[in-house]
Amino acid sequence: MKTSLCLCGFLSFLFFSLADLVKLAGFLLISWAAWYLGCLLAVFVPKETITTSIANLKDIGKKPVLRAPVPKRQKCDHWSPCSPGNYAYRILSGGGKEKLAKICFEDELLISEEKGNVGRGINIAIVNYKTGKVTSAKFFDMWEGDHSGEMVTFIKNAPEGSLLLMVTHDDGSTRLKNEAKKLVEELGSKEIWNMKFRSSWAFIAAKGFKLPDNIQKEKVRFILFSLCICLYIRSLP
């Protein structure tokens, strides 16, 4: 009886040992196969592909991010396009002695440091309203010398049908005489009499016709910093 029990116990131990060996062998075989497959992937599949696939897996479930396109620069540094039949312009006053004034019309600099025709005082550009082409541009020093009369003559000589774009750099009021102020007032300025030492001032006017009522024609500040008028106006048919 004892012999039978021992034999059964031995057979049971042998049976379980063989089963464990089979499991161990299967585990080792699977592990080796996984290792071998990994080696094959490392050799034959580009690293960039694996990286991209992992990144794509990480992005699963994330909400898509909608990105607005970067706005494209338009004429005279506007960020929205000018509708057909309109002129784009920007009038920028000077800020101190270093930051010079600038007048841009239809993406062309009429007065600027780059063109070498900007200076202390009042800078004026005259544009043919029908063609959109500049006819004359000049600055008048209002700190030294007597240039107020020259400015009056310059404005009076502007042809009918002209746009006059005016802007200050540094000081535009000290030697500006009443005759010049009255002439600019007749062109539509409401601030020319209020200008003080080193006021920043920008103004657009029309000679021989009327500008639309819905555009800003003048801007002034009584401290020294840059300001600009940047709008669109309708061109003549």
What would you say about this model in short?
This protein has helices at residues 2-44, 47-59, 148-156, 178-186, and strands spanning 86-92, 102-105, 108-111, 121-128, 134-140, 162-169, 200-207, 218-221, 228-234. The chain has 237 residues and is α+β, with helices and mostly antiparallel strands.
Tell me the number of strands. 9
Structural class by SSE content: alpha+beta
Order of helices and strands: HHEEEEEHEHEEE
- Helix tally equals 4
User: Approximately how much beta-strand content do the residues carry?
Assistant: 15-25%
Specify the helix fraction band.
25-40%
Mean pLDDT over the full residue set: 79
Poorly predicted residue ranges: 1-16
Largest sheet: 5 strands, antiparallel
Shape label: elongated
Q: How many separate domains?
A: 2
- Rg for CA atoms: 40 Å
User: Largest sheet, order of strands side by side?
Assistant: 5-4-6-7-8
Whole-Å distance between the termini?
123 Å
Subcellular location: Secreted
GO molecular function: carbohydrate binding
Protein name: ILEI/PANDER domain-containing protein
Main location: secreted
